[in-house]
Write a structure and sequence with these properties.
Blueprint lengths: L5 H7 L22 E5 L3 H13 L4 H13 L21 E7 L4 E8 L5 H11 L4 E3 H10 L10 H12 L17 E6 L5 E7 L20 E4 L3 E7 L1 H6 L2 H10 L4 H15 L8 E6 L5 E5 L7 E6 L2 E6 L1 E2 L3
Parallel strand pairs: 3-4, 10-13
Antiparallel strand pairs: 1-5, 1-11, 2-3, 2-6, 5-6, 7-8, 8-9, 9-10, 11-12
Bound molecules: glycine (GLY).
Length: about 325
């Protein structure tokens, strides 16, 4: 994707004329060193691991994959990997995607059962196939063929939660109206030499309709990365995110000159412009450009985005800007 002139883009964005100041610098203009930007509280552990892998000679793809594995393996995170809350039938159904901004190459899996590290299977889709996305049984068979071990992904806690949900005659289902948390791990990373990778992994909406696929495994929706421009990831209501091709939209705003923060805010505003009810949506986004500049925003404080930022050797927790009340 070619960056376009920042001033031209800003002229085309309503209400942002004041920001039309400087030309968008080339990716190679400065080297901020490695940066790891990851959604939610668990992003801190993911960043630590990613930085460790990268420091010890791993590639940026290795770093993002291994960083996300930490959260997939953690049973206390009930929205990702092992211990993720199951679908309406009590089956843990995982989605993940990984994109290499250098090769412009993505791999993803969706509706994957019994394999706790879908991001690693997505990585193998990149490295061993000419495909981009594998789903369901095919994804499972692919993983088994490569030596991934199938296992029960329900923990006693997630089974208990599903049984409570199932036993509740007033339970909320997605045949009606969604209203639960869904907190993906999304990571966008920069190696300091201009290479970018973005990845995300999720068990999706708790008690979703079996077969549902949302943003996390859809390239351009849950993740997108392009060395020339930047990378982005989305977390929250993956059905909403899919309808706005959220991550590629953010990267395209950046290509036209927006900063990562401006680009994150712009996509959320567009969601509200097309439907004002989206003000109360669970929607949050992160973005990073090759200069190491970060963007992070969420729709409202009820879904307050927290994210971990690893930069210059420090790993800190921050909050994204909430745009609406
Ligand atoms: N954003 C994760 C999901 O809705 O599946």
């Amino acid at each position: 994707m070619e960056p376009v002139d920042r001033r031209e883009f800003m002229k085309s964005m309503a209400g942002t004329a004041a920001l039309a100041a400087a030309d968008f610098p080339s990716a190679a203009a400065s080297s901020p060193g490695p940066v790891f930007l990851t959604t939610w509280e668990w992003g801190r552990n993911a960043n630590e691991r990613a930085a460790e892998v990268f420091r010890s000679g791993g590639s940026l793809l290795d770093a993002v994959e291994k960083g996300i594995n930490v959260v997939e393996d953690d049973p206390s995170v009930t929205t990702v990997g092992y211990g993720g809350l199951p679908n309406a039938e009590g089956v843990v159904e995982l989605d993940a995607a990984l994109m290499d901004g250098t090769r412009h190459r993505a791999g993803s899996v969706c509706n994957l059962h019994m394999i706790k590290n879908p991001i690693s299977v997505a990585r193998q889709v990149i490295e061993r196939t000419r495909h981009t996305t594998l789903a369901g049984q095919g994804a499972l068979q692919f993983a088994i063929k490569l030596g991934f071990q199938p296992q029960q992904l329900l923990t006693p806690e997630s089974l208990k939660k599903w049984m409570e949900w199932k036993a509740n005659p007033d339970r909320q289902t997605f045949w009606l109206k969604p209203g639960r948390n869904h907190d993906t791990i999304g990571m966008v990373a920069l190696d300091g030499q201009g290479r970018m990778v973005a990845g995300c992994s999720t068990s999706g909406l708790a008690f979703k309709i079996p077969g549902r696929v949302a943003d996390s495994s859809l390239v351009g929706c849950g993740v997108y990365a392009d060395d020339n421009v930047g990378g982005a990831s989305a977390t929250g209501d993956g059905d909403l995110m899919t309808n706005y091709c959220t991550s590629i939209s953010i990267v395209q705003f950046m290509a036209r000159g927006a900063s990562p923060q401006e680009a994150c805010e712009e996509i959320l505003r567009r969601m509200v412009k097309t439907d004002s009810r989206n003000r109360s949506a669970q929607a949050a986004v992160i973005a990073l450009n090759p200069r190491g500049e970060v963007g992070a925003a969420c729709m409202n404080p009820q879904f307050q985005l927290k994210y971990a930022l690893w930069k210059n050797g420090a790993n800190q927790m921050c909050e994204g800007k909430a745009l609406y009340e």
